Amino acid sequence: EKRQFELGLRTSTDVLQAQTNFADAQSAEILALAEYQIALVDLAYATGTLLGAAKVQWEPIVPQSNIK
Percent of the chain having pLDDT more than 70? Predict the structure, then answer.
């Protein structure tokens, strides 16, 4: 649009609208990515795999060999 504006084929309103549409699309993409990450955390929580999904590992207090 900007190039067409420079050639006199588009108005400044067309350029501003295109820039607004682009910014809106970028915002929507970021929001979708954030909502996707939240959904993944919700899924891990609901399935009881939240710590595993976060790659949390812990060593048992009592070694397995001492458990009868």
Answer: 94
3-class DSSP state for residue 5?
A: helix
- Rounded to two decimals, the pTM is 0.64
Q: What is the largest CA-CA distance in the chain?
A: 84
What is the secondary structure of 9-67 as a DSSP string? Answer: SS-HHHHHHHHHHHHHHHHHHHHHHHHHHHHHHHHHHHTT-HHHHTT-----SS-GGG-
What DSSP assignment string belongs to 44-56?
A: HHHTT-HHHHTT-
